[in-house]
Amino acid sequence: MKGKEWYQADDVAQEYDDKRFSDGGRHIDRREKQAVLEALGPVDGQRVLEIACGTGRFTVMLAEHGADVVGLDISGAMLAQGREKARRAGVLDAVEFMRGDAARLPFPDDHFDAVFAMRFFHLADTPRAFLREMARVSKEIVFFDTFNRFSSRSVYNWLLPMGSRLYARFEVEDLLGDVGLHLVGEAHDFVLPYGLYREIPDEVAGHLREMDMGLRGSALGEKLASVSYWTASV
Fold it and tell me: What class of enzyme is it (predicted)?
C-alpha cells in the first residue's frame, strides 16, 4: 500500500483528523459520512466491518447509529486514536478495533451484513485482492470510494508526495465483475480538487462547496467529479 510507513507513524495519527477535517475539511467529512450512511442504509443491529478505519471517524458514527462495528487498520497508532474517540462518544462497547491486513481478513465467509472502505482504494496496490476479501466476508453490501482518472484529481495528483491510484469507470466495473460483485448504486462529487478544501478557511470553503454542489447536479459536473462512491451487492 502506498505510504504504508508514513501512515503508521505516531505523529501522523495524532494530527490526522485536525489536518484533514478541520476548517474547510469539514465539508469533506460531512459528505463522506453522508455517503456511508446512504449506502449502508439503516444499520441498527447490523454487523459492519470498516476496512482501513484510521482514527474511527466512520466506525464511531455507525456505532452511534446502533451498528455492531469492527474497525480494521494496519496502524496501531490510528487504532488507539479510534478507541479514544469511541470512549469519548460512549460507544466503546459497540466497537472493536483490530490491527490486520485487509488482503487477508481474519473472518469467515458472510460474517458481516456490510463491509466498506473509505479513503483506501486510491492507495491500494492490489485492489482486486482487497475487494475480493471484502466481498467474501460480506453477506450483502460492499461500499467504497475512488478518485477518478478523468477529473481535476489527475492534476492535483501531481502535487502529492505519494500520488494516488486513479480509476476510470470501466476499471471499477471490471474490478466488481472480477470478484463477483454487482453495482447497485453510485454517486459522484467534488468537481473542484478534493484536497483544496483542507487548505482554506471554512467560510471560503462553504462558498466553494455551494458552487461545487451546483456543478454536481449537471451532466458536466458528474463527468468531471473527482470522487465516486460505489455501492455493490454480493
Answer: transferase
Nearest-angstrom CA–CA distance, 164 and 147: 8
SS3 103: coil
Residue 222, Cα to own-chain centre: how many angstroms? Answer: 19
As for how many domains the chain has, the answer is 1
Q: What is the pLDDT of residues 42-88, one digit of tens each?
A: 999 999 999 999 999 999 999 999 999 999 999 999 999 999 999 99
Single out the residue of 70, 44, 66 nearest to residue 137, CA to CA. 70
Q: Domain of residue 89: give its range.
A: 4-231
CATH number at residue 25: 3.40.50.150
* Residue 234 near residue 135, CB atoms below 8 Å: yes
What is the rounded CA–CA span in Å between residue 55 and residue 38? 21
Q: Strand, helix or coil at 9? A: coil
Give the residues of the chain that fall short of pLDDT 70: 1-22, 152-163
Residue 227 contacts residue 156 (beta carbons within 8 Å): no
